Amino acid sequence: MSASQDCPISAVRASGFSSRRGFLAGLAGTFPGLALTDLLGRDGVLSGGHLHHPPRAKRVVQLFMAGAASHVDLFDYKPRLEKEHGKQWDPGEGVELFQSTPGASMKSVWDFRPHGKCGKALSEIVSPLGEVADEIAFVHNVVGKTGVHSQGTLLQTTGFNRPGFPSAGSWVSHALGSENDNLPSFVVLPDHRGLASNGTKNWSSMFLPAEHQGTVIRPGGETPIDDLFPRKNAEYITPAADRAGLELLGRLNAGYAAERAGDSRLNARIRSYELAARMQLSATEALDVSKEPQHIKDLYGLAPEGPGVDDTTINAKAETEFFGRKCLVARRLLERGVRFVQIWSGNDNGFPRRNWDSHEDVKRDHGPLARGMAVGAAALIKDLKQRGMLDDTIILWTTEFGRMPCAQRGVGRDHNPFVFTNWLCGGGVRGGVTHGESDLWGYKPLDREHPTQVYDIHATILHLLGIDHERLTVRHDSLDRRLTDVHGHVIREILA
Amino acid sequence: MNRHFDRRWPLRSILSAFSAAALLSGAMAAGNPDDEAAYFRSRIEPLLKTHCFECHSHAGGKAKGGLVLDSRSGWTKGGDSGPAIAPGKPGESLLARAIGYADADLQMPPDGKLPPETIALLRDWIARGAPDPRESFSPEDAGKSRPAVPAAAELWSFQPLKPVAPPEVRDAGWPRDPFDRFLLAKLESEGITPAPDADAWTLARRLYLVLTGLPPTPEQSDAFRAAHERDPDAAVADLADRLLASPAFGEKWARHWLDLTAYADTIGLGRAIPAPEAWRYRDYAIGAFSGDQPFPEFVREQLAGDLLESSDAAMRARRIVATGFLAIGPWELVNGDKAQLRMDVIDRQVQRTGQALLGMTLGCARCHDHKFDPVTQAEYYGLAGIFYSTVTLNGRLNGVFSAIEERPLPETPEQLVARAEAARVFQKEVSEAESRRSDARAEAKALEEKIAARKAELATASTTAPANSGAETADTALSELQKQLDEANGRVREGDGRLKVLAYLRPHRIEALAMSVSEMPEPEDCRINIRGNARQLGEVAPRGFPRGPAWDGAPVAPSAGQSGRRELADWIVDPKNPLAARVWVNRVWRQVFGEGLVRTADNFGFRGEAPSHPELLDRLAADFIADGWSTKRLIRRLVATRAWRQAAVNPAAVASGIEARDPENRWLWRANRRRLDAETIRDAMLAVSGMLSREAGGSSLPLEIPGNLNTGKPESVGDGARFPESLSRRRSVYLPVKRKGPFDAMDFLAVFDLPDTNQENGQRSLTAVPTQALTLANSPFVVECGRALAGRAGGGDDRERAAALVRRVFARPAEPEEIDAALAFLDELSQNPADRPADEARDEAWARLGQSCLIANEFLFRD
Predict the structure, then answer these.
(1) Contact indicator for A329, A292 with CB cutoff of 8 Å
(2) B337: domain range?
(3) Which residue in A288, B105, B549, B613 has its CB near the most CB atoms, within 10 A?
């Protein structure tokens, strides 16, 4: 064990690496019984050769557009809406909207044009993704269950539209464990302006072991990880005091455990400090993008001003900095063995709007958010590819539901839980394909009998990770629970 | 494990597999169609039903991969991958390939390979040409093919209580209570000697923490130790009495109850819509435990308090508040599908009632009959009908948002006087806000006029001197006026926002309201929701109670003309109901002993665990009922048992190899060491550092603090809401709970396994994860406690102060070596920094000493 790994809890910030042997190094030999990795969940229930079949991918990035991104303005081209633009929309059946009555048909706010060898038509606002269109599989017939943000969001993050179930990231962490001794296996990068609907429930481990809970990191924030270090205003906490305090703690705990032999929980708690200390070093290093070369920073669209870029009025430059930075940090975390990264664009309801819930004005909110997302996501795909990591990293783009083909008060759109778009790429996904279509307007699936559901998306991702979604179960409340409940089919059409 | 195995491979099917294999190994001639049919019916069909039908039949409701196996045509046509069976050719049959598990992509059944005998049987059947008389699917077969759920008569928890006399024990001097004899008899039969009694320090800390959630002060430990030396039994009994009578008892024990009700101070998981009156229910629960309300009354009030006769305003108010049990939950008020929203609310009421009071997982029967327990979908909707005839949501908060039912509470004359005064103060606040806003408006108007005048002046000037076209931007007087106008307009907007907030708060200030339920004017039975879909309705399910836990003379349905809540409560707490008392005494036992006799405290069904000491459980339940359902008296008895007073280590038993035979201490050969729960850790830190506020009760939501409420409609409270300083020092039970995750200022508890605020939960987990280490080491809260603790270590020299500190934190005298270590630590730290005054360095050292003790395992665990 190197000295740098021994450095206890707060010494890092003030003094960099410590050359002094920490008390934990001394203790580490005292309790050989408990593997440190137990605390991180390094060993998943399927790791070590217990996968159900050979995997194509090892890790996952979930890009989540909070507020419900409009498929018809971004990815799902509907010429019919151009023809009928401005005329009363009539899909030939009753339409029940969330908070309005159906207005006129509304064409995409931006023009579509074809991209890549596959010729996929994409909206001008997400054109940066055009350069990687041949890597992406689009699924345009995803259906939800409700037009309620909280329920729709939970359905996409946990596979259930009611609370109480583990996040997909927790399931993957539980199954595969971590590839890194020093970082959590499931990391969440929320929008810095606030958590989306459901808040922390979107990455909760619920009935899975607690170490599979998503760890929140706020790249660019003053405290990227809660309590990773003492608060800045606590200046009296010097590294020396910190180290000595923890040494004392180590002695206290060792004495207590010695009289209570065989209680692994006591050792686990002692080890948790060692792990926390390692996390301080590893996380600090992983989050530091300052050493990235300029061309990489440019690729991700980072602003010269950094995270402090002005967004008093929503604008593309700031949104690109926010989303791009999270994508870059995600890449660094993936390189270091993090298994599942969940990246959020947009907060919960609030004004001024900083999410995708464009009831009032699609152009105003979707414009900057979509551009920022497209720059960041395209950069992530290209960057992973040039590092040879796209082959075994799955990227999933999702949102809680879509938006209506008709206008709400002229330039906004209401919720559409009946159809929306997901896209996937990398990690064994076949690029340049479109699977499943929506109808002429993007109102419902073209084939209403065979839509794609979140279960199918989750089943496909697990499949690519080497997991049979029907066999990854955990007994809870007397039932063998699955991420995919009692549903789900692998979408073989989008497998490479 | 055995249980699981039995379920998967029913003995019957294994036997039939063997006998059929034996038959086949002989020369079994193919031919006669009747024989073939009989062969299929007796040998093959049961295997398909057991292993395949769940996912591949009409009865199972599923055709995975498009394949059904409940008719010949089902497998002839096959699924997405084509015909499942090629008659006569096992080698070419997908089904044979799937059960053979050779192909990684096609393995059936998915949860594990079949036993070789079964595979052999199915392959032989295919080899014989796959005779199958089932031409097409018949519904009659469907009825028979559902894997049978064992009958109610087979479930231990549905059987009547069978209290028996405590068994004889060899060591008659050990037991202090008849309960002890049940435990000791088991230990003696296993040849195990119980652990020695815990010492007085340990016992005092255990008593205080278990009964009140707060550790003893040094004076309290000393007093107990002195009493314990004189007479251990009397010392325990006396202290238990005193602690049970203290307000801290209700605060500690009500929190456990609140876990079972998914209590929170906000409503949905979307925006955090405040539940400004939820605190009344929290305070009700605290009062109920403090007042040792008999359990049946506690249940009746919560399910039907609004329907009970009350003798005065206070009782009436209490009983309306009690129905918060049903009224408070994670309702998605925003859901536009009101039929579904209503059924979602009812589902939680059914689930919660079942889980908290009956240990039944009734929610499993919402979409179909319960898969494991004898509960039909019709029984579920029979109960649902009771809540269907109850008003929980009422009207609209705003647009599509539903509103919760809030009822005015009757108040006592004194309360009415106070209420009138509060209303007067509130009205004054509103008037002041209004007058501030109209002042600002007037000011803005005057400024606008001035600006217009100035602009006109400039315009005149510019016509006379056309070169000066930028006059308006360059004019300092004008820009000053504009600045003042912006400020005035800002105050107008601020006033608008403030008045909106006040309008929202108005009903809660001028009236006493409670979240509660009430009766529908006309009770109505519920129709079965097919697959749980509120828009796909099946048969009417007459209102009724679950049939499984029945007894002679048990009512099966409420009488006409009312929802049935009151009768449901009566049915639950009927002394003959086998579940309510068992479930509750087991919960109490779990809180006291650290683990339940039934460890699955929320599930007494087939998939739950059986009790470790079934006779003891029945004795406890029977005695509890006989003793007037008094929770306090039950707790008092439990802490007086010899079993509870054991030490947490038992070297003799360990030496005899007990850990191999009973590693989880189910036989209670020692006390269970427990990590403190989230609230207890926080409360204990506040207590030993002298920072704990004993302020109690009342609303915890800081809705009055400007900026905390969004002024848009409907009001919601932000994640980053600010709280009054005083709240941060109160006991944790009084902190506000938010459904979508903790308020930023309140996340300490979540790190230490506070259960999900949207789930009823009677079995918290206690984990050790690195985020806890980070929180203990670095969170401002813990750092502050460490400093405060060091500050109150008292006078005297360093040695005395260190000893006092250790004693305060660990509730025992310090060992000399500990004091030496502490002093060495203080000296080392004080010498170190050259850049600060010596006394400051010394203070810092003390603060670190305090914090190190507070985060030590000895503090975070109790023996």
Answers:
(1) no
(2) 294-409+519-575
(3) B549
